[in-house]
Amino acid sequence: MLPIPFLLLLLSSILSPSSAADFCVADLTLPTTPAGFSCKKESTVTVSDFVFSGLGVTGNTNNTLKAAVTPAFSSQCPGLNGLGISAARLDIAIGGVVPLHTHPAASEFLVVTQGAILAGFISSSNSVYYKTLYKGDAMVFPRGLLHFQVQTGRSPAVAFGSFSSPNPGLQIVPFALFANSLPTPLVEKVTFLDDAEVKKLKKVFGGTG
């Protein structure tokens, strides 16, 4: 038998309203921290902080990748801050690709709504999992693992992703390697690519050095 005072305390904690805040709307005027954005004063929060209308707009795929991502993260929808969720729209034109990339802070669940996408990821043991997804198909990409999406078929593809963080983070491998000022000889050393190929890719992605 539990002591009566303990039972009363337990019952009180179950029935009493939570003292935790209902939400922590991001204050975008302050810098972000590893824990996310600081909270706005509740008196300044409006319904607009919980609404994002951009996911119905087709992204601009007129770029090197022929792909566009429209994020709905806490920077775009401040009400997501602290809730552990977010979303994004993915548009891939014919011949387009979202190259190997990673979301350091989140797992992703991708649902195809138009066209076909060859999607996959690489595990930390270098096992590869990939499959062509059609309208209505979905695939999960575990947190932090390299993954990709490639348009297939005869029409542009559209998909929507949900994430287990309001700020999933993003690092695209080709941009990380070839869109910065890392010296060409060093890139060659760490990638095993020859000089001509590294310089070609730096030119494509805008890198220097």
Automatic annotation (TrEMBL):
Endpoints of the signal sequence: 1-20
Keywords: Apoplast, Disulfide bond, Manganese, Metal-binding, Secreted, Signal
SMART domains: Cupin_1 (SM00835)
Family per record: Belongs to the germin family.
Compartments where located: Secreted, Extracellular space, Apoplast
Disulfide bonds: C24-C39
Protein name as it appears in the record: Germin-like protein
Molecular functions per Gene Ontology: manganese ion binding
PANTHER family linked to this entry: GERMIN-LIKE PROTEIN SUBFAMILY 3 MEMBER 3
Pfam families: Cupin_1
Organism in which the protein naturally occurs: Dendrobium chrysotoxum
A Gene Ontology term for the protein's cellular component: apoplast
Residues the record lists as binding oxalate: H103, E108
Binding site for Mn(2+): H101, H103, E108, H147
Main subcellular localisation: secreted
InterPro entries registered for this protein in UniProt: Cupin_1, Germin, RmlC-like_jellyroll, RmlC_Cupin_sf
Residues covered by the Cupin type-1 domain: 53-199
Highest rank taxon of the organism: Eukaryota
